[in-house]
């Protein structure tokens, strides 16, 4: 930031030299005081709840590219620091994976981070984060805390003065390490150093902070297979085709962020294995390249890879998994997705998903166990019981057991409950700051869990936790909603003289909300009334209104109102309730003894009548508008013959309406199925009509079906 020109009369305390980069200097001073190796300053965007990165130091901005511009509500440390006006400390990769899984998925490396608000008592201006290599102690010292807090306070005051003086915040360049220079160009020392390096029997490269090759000796060029001129100024994974894999770039990032030596082996076609060892500093990396003969021998002797799963999940796999998890609806979807995607990728042969309910462990699902009782015995276990699953769920701390001996040493009770596996990872599933479950991955052979694999698995636990939290809410809402719907519908149909009845109700399969489809059969004064209807909407409001309509129709029927009066009274009730929802309805007064039925219709699909001779006709009845629209509406009635053996089919539009199908064709198809199977027992006929309906198979809407068959009375 350049403070710009100021009046000479301004107070000295408020003056900053022209052109002085305030943000960069403040950040560099802050990092130097606490020996941090990278950091960044964020400023609040004018008029937006957004933090924008203004300056980054110590590492290329590409390392923080996903977070150059973040909302204040984002679950990342700088946003939390501003929103909560506090210092946020993340002491390592496991804590990062638990608290900020989105960051840990992209940067699963060993480093520590502190984020602080840049704010005065009255106003926030932005935030700062600084990072340390993995060797930093797990806790922030009091001295570091005090230095960082004071430095951010001073920066906030300077920004406040800049605002008061109407001095804009200007763009400043990022701060990277000084270029690697071994002395004056062409000096004797530099020449001799180059000669010495060229005589070494192994390859040496120097990379800058961006990963670009700034030096390579002849041995490195020969091993890699490209001339030095082709390597200089390029990134190895970009200029060398067989190094063009995110895994190798990941090792460079890991070395710079953790400031710890990293290494990898790569196959140079057709069969030469090379070892790359990266030695980082705050100004770049030195890379040693040698032939990995032991690795080559091992790969020649070992079976060819192909079926063996990778032990670590690549970034592309993680992104694919994250996308798939967003589509998982219920808990079993999440369990199946983890079994199909995560377990094979990390070499696990079985998994268990655990949750809690009323202070006890609850098995949400499992895969890969030949004997399900091995897992189900944990169902209902008190959370106070000392087991690795309850410990991970209670504390939110992951646990990794390389072997059975290691597990049984900490949990002796496992001696009595063997599950046939030899290593385990217990991943706490923490979402929205609270544990929602534990994912247990089991391995068939002893399995070491190095630090990078633990970080990746813990990060995956964060992704699984987000999906599981949504799935638990989905399942709970689904059960509640359909429990409500079932409670509002009749549990059974009453036996009536001269009539057989059968019904079916199927909820929609898309979404988790419920609809307003309803039906009822009401005995009344020697005759019977049947009603079917559909309240507009797919939510609890529609279901509640459906219950009120069904109750009203039953009440009006019981007091002896005629069909047209029942419809008018229900219409007025719906209008008086002041709801914005409408309802279709079909009401029948049935008199089997006389073989007659009187019907009134309010915008509902017409019923079908199958006569005793097998012919089917659509009863295109006269009727009125939907209920709830016009308080003066009238609903004319139609009387229909109902001879013994006749079948009436009453249904909602979910049985016949589907995308791309003409409604008349769908109605004709339903009539054909009713004609063909009309002699079946009524329950079998109901199943047949639903099973062979294209709309009912897709179930984009709820389906209600009520069948009535007139029979001769004794």
Please state the average pLDDT score: 82
Q: State the distance separating the first and last CA atoms.
A: 99 Å
Q: How is the largest sheet built, in terms of strand order?
A: 3-2-1-6-5-4
Strand content: 15-25%
Largest sheet: 6 strands, antiparallel
Please provide the count of β strands.
26
Radius of gyration: 36 Å
- Helix content range of the residues, please? 25-40%
Label the overall shape: elongated
* Annotation field: number of helices: 22
- Which parts are unreliable, with pLDDT below 50 for 5 consecutive residues or more? 1-19, 178-188, 294-311
State the secondary-structure class: alpha+beta
Descriptive report:
There is one protein chain. The chain has 714 residues and is an alpha+beta fold. The protein is built from 22 helices and 26 strands. The strands form 5 sheets. The chain has a 6-stranded antiparallel sheet. A 5-stranded antiparallel sheet has the order 8-7-11-10-9, sandwiched between helices. A 5-stranded antiparallel sheet has the order 13-12-16-15-14, with helices on both faces. Helix 18 (540-558) runs antiparallel to helix 19. The longest helix has 38 residues, at 451-488. The termini are far apart.
Give a short summary of the structure.
36% of the residues lie in helices and 25% in strands.
